[in-house]
C-alpha cells in the first residue's frame, strides 16, 4: 500500500454548488529527470500543470464504491514542467456527492449530497543530480472559487467564463480517508471520439436545435465569438417529438442543462465535470446565428479498445449493429450503466449481466468489468445479497433474481472471453456468497421462492399497467438459482476448490425444479428451462417454444430475462430460420422496428416511439439502453458461428459453426481475441455458400454437418 505524504484538502468554508480550484505554484532551478503526479478526489477533478492537462482521464478518479475503494491516478508529468510552475485542480461533486437516484430521496442520497468534496495528491520530483522531492497537497496550497459555478451528474454545468478568479486563500487540511485508496484499476474515462454537428435547424415550435446525427454520451463543445456577459443556455434531448419539436421529458428530473456566461472574443468551451446523453441540443440562448461548424459532440467513455466487427448485406441490420456499439460506448462511462441521460445512469446489475457477452466481444472489457466486479464484491451485503445497482446507490433495494446473478454470470464471462482465471479467484467468494444468500432467503428449499424481483422486466406479455412480463417470478428466480450454482461449481473446479456442497445443492435444485415446474407457460419460461439445462427434453421444449412464437404471430413476447437467449435457443434446436425471422423482423416488436424509426442506439422499450409517433411514456423511456443489444452475441456465435469453448477459454481453441440463412446475401463477424483475429464470413453464391474463415488457433470447423480440425490460418470452404 502506498504511504501518503499528502493531506486531504478542501476550501475552509463550504462553497456550496461552486466548484473550488486548488493551486500550487513553485520554482525549480534543478533539472528534473522524472516528475510523477499522484492524485485523487472525493468528487471528480480536472488537473492542469502549466495550463496543460496532466493526462487524458476525464471525470477522474472515476466511480467506485467510495466508502470502500477509491482509485488514485499516477501521471507522468515530466514533459510539462518549467522553471516556474503552476498546478491547478478543479473539483466537482461528480458521483461522490450526487443526487442519485433522481426519482426518490433516500436516506443514503441525503447522506451523500451532504458530504463535502476534497482532493489528495503528491508530486514526486526526481532531479538529475540524484536528489528527490515530494510536493504534497497540504495547507500550503491555495484555493478559490473557479469559473464553474455548478456541476452535477444529472443537472449539468454552469460556467462563468467572464469571471476572473480571485480571493485565493489557504486550503484547509481535513481528515479524509487513506485506508480505502487503491491504484487505478479500471480503464480511464477519456474523450474518445468527436462527432461534428450535422445541422442546425429551427423546429415547428421555433426552437433552434443542433443535430449530431448520432446519440452519444459526453458533452458538446462550442466555439463562439461573443461579448463579455453574453449568455448561452443549452438543453439536451435524444429524440424529437411527434411534431418534430425538441423533447426531453424522458430525462425526468435530470435537468441536463448548460449555462455559460461568455468572456470577450472568440472562445471554445465544453463542460468539464459532468456528462450528458444526447443527439440533439436546444440553443435556448446563443449569441449570433448558430452554424453547425461551431458545435462538436465530444464522446466520452472508458478507454476500451474495439475488438469486434459485424457486417452483413442488410443495411438495416448494419444500422442495428452500429446502434449496439454506440449503446455500449454510451453506457461504459467507468461503470456499466442502464442509460446515460435521465435521472438514473446507474450500474444496474441485471442490465450488466444481460449485455456482458456481447460487450466482451465488441470491446476489450476485461479491466473495465474486473474493477466493477471488485466493487460488486466490496458492496455485497453481510448476508451475501447483491445490490440492484453497483455502486450501490439503492441500498434499501431488494436483491432480485437475474440482477444479483451478475455476481456469478459476469466473472464467468470475463473468464471465458479472456481466459482470465484471476477474475474467478477474485470473485469466487462473492459468487458463493450470492448463492448462499439465495439458500438463506428462499421460502422453499431448493427453489428460490418469495422475495421481490423485477421478473422478466419489460416483457411484452406483461399484464396491462405492469412493467413485468407474465413469466412467474419464482420460476425465473429458481432457474437463475440453478444457473448461478452451476457457475460456482465450474469456477470452483477451475480454481481447485471443494465444491461438493454446491454439487449437491445443484442436484437438488434441478430435481426440485423439474418436479415443481412441469409445464411452461411463457416464451421466457421455455427459454430459461432450455438454456439453463433444466428441461428434461430440451428438443421437445424447443419445438413447443417455436410453435408458441409462431402462434404469437412470429413475435417475441420476452423481456430483459428471456430476450438475450431466445435466438440461441431457437438456432440450437433446429429453428435457425425462425431466429433469422425474428432478427430481421421490421414490425413492432422487433430489433429493426427501432432502426426503422431512426434509432441510432438501442431503446429501452421495443416501442419507445410507437407506430403513431407517440412516446411509450415519459415515465421510463430511454433511447440509449444497451440491454436488448445483447442480440449481437447471437450474431457472433450462431450466425457467424464463432464459439469460445469452456474447455479452452480465452479462444485458446475455437469452434466455428456458421449458420447461414437465405435471408441475407452475406454476413461477416470478427473478434480480435487474446490469441489474434478470428473471422468468419459466409456469402451465397450461385452454386452454394462460400465460407471464409480466419483463425489464430487450432479450430474445429463445422460446415454442413461436416467437422474438420484445422491449424491457425485462412480457409475457404463451400457448402
Ligand atoms: C432501469 C433498468 C433496470 C430496471 C430494474 C430501470 O429503471 O433503467 O434498466 O434494470 O430499472 O428494474
From TrEMBL:
Keywords: Hydrolase. The keyword Manganese does not apply. It comes from Candidatus Blautia faecigallinarum. InterPro entries: 6-hairpin_glycosidase_sf, 6hp_glycosidase-like_sf, Alpha_rhamnosid, Bac_rhamnosid6H, Bac_rhamnosid_C, Bac_rhamnosid_N, Rhamnosid_concanavalin. Residues 204-301 form the Alpha-L-rhamnosidase concanavalin-like domain. Its EC number is 3.2.1.40. It catalyses: Hydrolysis of terminal non-reducing alpha-L-rhamnose residues in alpha-L-rhamnosides. Residues 306-637 form the Alpha-L-rhamnosidase six-hairpin glycosidase domain. It holds the Pfam family Bac_rhamnosid6H. The keyword Hydrolase applies. PANTHER family: ALPHA-RHAMNOSIDASE (EUROFUNG), ALPHA-RHAMNOSIDASE (EUROFUNG)-RELATED. The lineage of its organism: Bacteria, Bacillati, Bacillota, Clostridia, Lachnospirales. GO terms for molecular function: alpha-L-rhamnosidase activity. It is an enzyme of class 3 (hydrolase). This is alpha-L-rhamnosidase. Residues 30-171 form the Bacterial alpha-L-rhamnosidase N-terminal domain. Residues 643-701 form the Alpha-L-rhamnosidase C-terminal domain. GO terms for biological process: carbohydrate metabolic process.
Amino acid at each position: 500500500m502506498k504511504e501518503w505524504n499528502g493531506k486531504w484538502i478542501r476550501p475552509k468554508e463550504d462553497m456550496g454548488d461552486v466548484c473550488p480550484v486548488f493551486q500550487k505554484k513553485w520554482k525549480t532551478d534543478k533539472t528534473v529527470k522524472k516528475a510523477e503526479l499522484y492524485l485523487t478526489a472525493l468528487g471528480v477533478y480536472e488537473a492542469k500543470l502549466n495550463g496543460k492537462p496532466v493526462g487524458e482521464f476525464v471525470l477522474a478518479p472515476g466511480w467506485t464504491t467510495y466508502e470502500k475503494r477509491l482509485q488514485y491516478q499516477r501521471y507522468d508529468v515530466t514533459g510539462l514542467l518549467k522553471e516556474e510552475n503552476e498546478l491547478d485542480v478543479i473539483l466537482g461533486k461528480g458521483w461522490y456527492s450526487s443526487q442519485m437516484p433522481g426519482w426518490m430521496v433516500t436516506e443514503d442520497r441525503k447522506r451523500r449530497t451532504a458530504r463535502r468534496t476534497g482532493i489528495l495528491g503528491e508530486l514526486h520530483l526526481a532531479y538529475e543530480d540524484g536528489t528527490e522531492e515530494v510536493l504534497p497537497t497540504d495547507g500550503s496550497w491555495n484555493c478559490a472559487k473557479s469559473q464553474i459555478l455548478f456541476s452535477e451528474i444529472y443537472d449539468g454545468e454552469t460556467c462563468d467564463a467572464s469571471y476572473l478568479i480571485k480571493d485565493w486563500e489557504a486550503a484547509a487540511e481535513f481528515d479524509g480517508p487513506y485506508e480505502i485508496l487503491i491504484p487505478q484499476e479500471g480503464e480511464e474515462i477519456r474523450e474518445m471520439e468527436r462527432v461534428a454537428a450535422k445541422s442546425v435547424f429551427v423546429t415547428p415550435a421555433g426552437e433552434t436545435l443542433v443535430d449530431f446525427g448520432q446519440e452519444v454520451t459526453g458533452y458538446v463543445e462550442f466555439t463562439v465569438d461573443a461579448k463579455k456577459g453574453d449568455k448561452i443556455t443549452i438543453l439536451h434531448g435524444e429524440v424529437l417529438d411527434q411534431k418534430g419539436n425538441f423533447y426531453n421529458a424522458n430525462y425526468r428530473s435530470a435537468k441536463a442543462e448548460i449555462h455559460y456566461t461568455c468572456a470577450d472574443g472568440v472562445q471554445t468551451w465544453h463542460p468539464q465535470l459532468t456528462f450528458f446523453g444526447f443527439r440533439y441540443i436546444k440553443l435556448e440562448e446563443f449569441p449570433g446565428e448558430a452554424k453547425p461548424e461551431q458545435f462538436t459532440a465530444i464522446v466520452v467513455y472508458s478507454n476500451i479498445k474495439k475488438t469486434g466487427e459485424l457486417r452483413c448485406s442488410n443495411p438495416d441490420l448494419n444500422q442495428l449493429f452500429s446502434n449496439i456499439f454506440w449503446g455500449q460506448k454510451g453506457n461504459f462511462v467507468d461503470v456499466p450503466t442502464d442509460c446515460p441521460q435521465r435521472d438514473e445512469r446507474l450500474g444496474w446489475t441485471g442490465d450488466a449481466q444481460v449485455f456482458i457477452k456481447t460487450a466482451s466481444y465488441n470491446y476489450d472489457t476485461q479491466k473495465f468489468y474486473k474493477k466493477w466486479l471488485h466493487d460488486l464484491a466490496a458492496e455485497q451485503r453481510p448476508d451475501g445479497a447483491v445490490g440492484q445497482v453497483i455502486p450501490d446507490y439503492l441500498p434499501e433495494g431488494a436483491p432480485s433474481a437475474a440482477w444479483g446473478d451478475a455476481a456469478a454470470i459476469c466473472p464467468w464471462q470475463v473468464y471465458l472471453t479472456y481466459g482470465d482465471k484471476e477474475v474467478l479467484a477474485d470473485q469466487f467468494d462473492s459468487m458463493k456468497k450470492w448463492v448462499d444468500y439465495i439458500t438463506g432467503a428462499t421460502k422453499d428449499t431448493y427453489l428460490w421462492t418469495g422475495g421481490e424481483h423485477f421478473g422478466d422486466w419489460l416483457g411484452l406479455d406483461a399484464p396491462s399497467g405492469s412493467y413485468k412480463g407474465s413469466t412467474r417470478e419464482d420460476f425465473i428466480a429458481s432457474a437463475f438459482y440453478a444457473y448461478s450454482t452451476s457457475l460456482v461449481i465450474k469456477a470452483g473446479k477451475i480454481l481447485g476448490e471443494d465444491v461438493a456442497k454446491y454439487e449437491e445443492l445443484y442436484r437438488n435444485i434441478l430435481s426440485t425444479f423439474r418436479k415443481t415446474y412441469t409445464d411452461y407457460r411463457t416464451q421466457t419460461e421455455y427459454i430459461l428451462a432450455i438454456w439453463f439445462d433444466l428441461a428434461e427434453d430440451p428438443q421437445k421444449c424447443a419445438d413447443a417454444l417455436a410453435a408458441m412464437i409462431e402462434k404469437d404471430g412470429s413475435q417475441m413476447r420476452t423481456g430483459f430475462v428471456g430476450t438475450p437467449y431466445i435466438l440461441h435457443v431457437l438456432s440450437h434446436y433446429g429453428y435457425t430460420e425462425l431466429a433469422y425471422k425474428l432478427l430481421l423482423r421490421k414490425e413492432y416488436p422487433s430489433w429493426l422496428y427501432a432502426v426503422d424509426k431512426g434509432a441510432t442506439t438501442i431503446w429501452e422499450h421495443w416501442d419507445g416511439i410507437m407506430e403513431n409517433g407517440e412516446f411509450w411514456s415519459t415515465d421510463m423511456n430511454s433511447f440509449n439502453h444497451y440491454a436488448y443489444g445483447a442480440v449481437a452475441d447471437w450474431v457472433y456465435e450462431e450466425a457467424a458461428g464463432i464459439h469460445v469453448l469452456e474447455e479452452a477459454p480465452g479462444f485458446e481453441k475455437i469452434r466455428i459453426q456458421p449458420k447461414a440463412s437465405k435471408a441475407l446475401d452475406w454476413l461477416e463477424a470478427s473478434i480480435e481475441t487474446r490469441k489474434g483475429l478470428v473471422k468468419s464470413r459466409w456469402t451465397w453464391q450461385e452454386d452454394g455458400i462460400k465460407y471464409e474463415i480466419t483463425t489464430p488457433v487450432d479450430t474445429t470447423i463445422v460446415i454442413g454437418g461436416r467437422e474438420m480440425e484445422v491449424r491457425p490460418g485462412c480457409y475457404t470452404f463451400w457448402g
